[in-house]
Automatic annotation (TrEMBL):
Residues covered by the Pyrroline-5-carboxylate reductase dimerisation domain: 161-265
GO biological process, one term: L-proline biosynthetic process
Keyword presence, Oxidoreductase: yes
Catalytic activity: L-proline + NADP(+) = (S)-1-pyrroline-5-carboxylate + NADPH + 2 H(+); L-proline + NAD(+) = (S)-1-pyrroline-5-carboxylate + NADH + 2 H(+)
Protein name as it appears in the record: Pyrroline-5-carboxylate reductase
Length: 268
């Protein structure tokens, strides 16, 4: 018998994980989605997923309970879940800034909890998820949580819960940084005379190709940069301007700003 997975919240990330697991051969019957928002619930039900408005007895045989609500309503959701959650279930939270101690408290002392920080490329199977588990989670519990996110991309288990904030700053927020750079490249292409659709295509292609090349190589990213930069050439001119403008330093500082904000959210 395969493990039953309950999702508390049926939004974009929950849907991405479900789609990934279905693509790996899981059955619709393996899932239960608790979703209070009627249009979302109806859309999920139309796909053949079992959906309910509120947590109830259906959680009683859950092996995994994925907390996929917005952080601001998570405490209320936990209060509803705790009455039906089996002690042996593994709870996985994807809520940013909510620490394990708070989750355990809100769940009535539940011990087997994993914090996860996925990112939006999970929607296309190219996500990166940071994970950290409580000491009560052994190899089996960690494997169950890991399998969830293996369906939507890569995973990294952190050595401390504090490093989840660092994952948030680098890969959780990372797609936003990349889109920012892509939009600037797109704007530059428009200014050079390309139509907007062509400019977008050029910018996306540059990032897609460079990312695929970096993933296929073991070389340092700085070395890959050097390989495409001829002294006195066009790339050299552009990168020299970026260095003078402090672009790399600004990006690094932005990552620190994101981690600081993650810590502020965790502190309430």
């Amino acid at each position: 018998m395969r493990e039953k997975i309950v999702f508390i919240g049926g939004g974009n990330m929950a849907s991405a994980i479900i789609d990934g697991l279905l693509g790996q051969g899981r059955a619709l019957e393996d899932f239960l989605v608790v979703e209070p928002y009627a249009p979302t619930r109806e859309a999920l039900a139309a796909r053949g997923l079992a959906c309910v408005e509120l947590p109830g007895p259906g959680l009683g045989d859950a092996a995994l309970c994925v907390l996929a609500t917005k952080p601001q309503v998570l405490r209320e959701a936990c209060a509803q879940v705790r009455r039906h959650l089996p002690a042996e279930a593994v709870v996985v939270s994807i809520a940013a800034g909510v620490e394990l101690a708070a989750l355990s408290d809100w769940l009535g002392g539940h011990a087997r909890i994993v914090r996860a920080m996925p990112n939006t490329p999970a929607k296309v199977g190219l996500g990166m998820t940071g994970l950290y588990a409580t000491p009560a989670c052994g190899p089996r519990e960690r494997a169950l949580a890991d399998a969830l996110f293996a369906a939507v991309g890569e995973r990294i288990w952190t050595a401390s819960e504090a490093m989840i904030d660092a994952v948030t700053a680098v890969t959780g927020s990372g797609p936003g940084y990349v889109f920012h750079f892509m939009a600037a490249l797109e704007q530059g292409a428009v200014e050079l005379g390309f139509a907007p659709a062509e400019a977008r295509r050029l910018a996306v292609s540059a990032f897609r190709g460079a990312a695929a090349l970096a993933a296929a190589e073991d070389a340092a990213l700085s070395e890959l940069q050097d390989r495409v930069t001829s002294k006195g050439g066009t790339t050299h001119a552009a990168l020299s301007h970026m260095r003078e403008a402090g672009v790399a330093e600004a990006i690094a500082r932005a990552v620190h700003c994101a981690r600081r904000r993650a810590r502020e959210l965790a502190a309430g």
